[in-house]
Design brief:
Strand order of the largest sheet: 3-4-5
Structural class: alpha+beta
Largest sheet: 3 strands, antiparallel
Order of helices and strands: EEEEEHH
Distance between the termini: 14 Å
Number of domains: 1
Radius of gyration: 13 Å
Shape: globular
Length: 101
């Protein structure tokens, strides 16, 4: 699966399977991120939109949380946002992954 990262659009390692939340598919993946002046990127788990590779700004998750915990938190986060707003935001991104149900 490809995702939007600090280094452009890259192939990332997914954890578990995708889950439908608010009519959209989401998945947990290990994504490289820039951190201060380190030469090597940090690998951090993020919840990504399956089609666009865009990530959710989920905070306060323990480092050792499971993929299920991330998706549960994503469901809670998205439940506070109107469906139309989610669809409008996601429409700003290009589709970079094929959705295979």
């Amino acid at each position: 699966m490809k995702a939007i990262t600090d280094f452009g659009i890259l192939e990332v390692k997914t954890i578990g399977s995708k889950k439908e939340i608010c009519g959209q598919f989401w998945i947990v993946a290990t994504v490289p991120v820039k951190y201060m002046n380190f030469t090597e990127p940090l690998k951090i788990r993020k919840v990504l939109h399956y089609n666009t590779g865009a990530n959710l700004p989920i905070k306060n998750i323990p480092h050792n949380a499971t993929a299920k915990d991330y998706l549960t938190e994503a469901e809670h986060f998205l439940s506070n946002i109107p469906f139309e707003a989610i669809s409008k935001e996601l429409s700003k991104y290009d589709s970079i992954n094929q959705l295979n149900k």
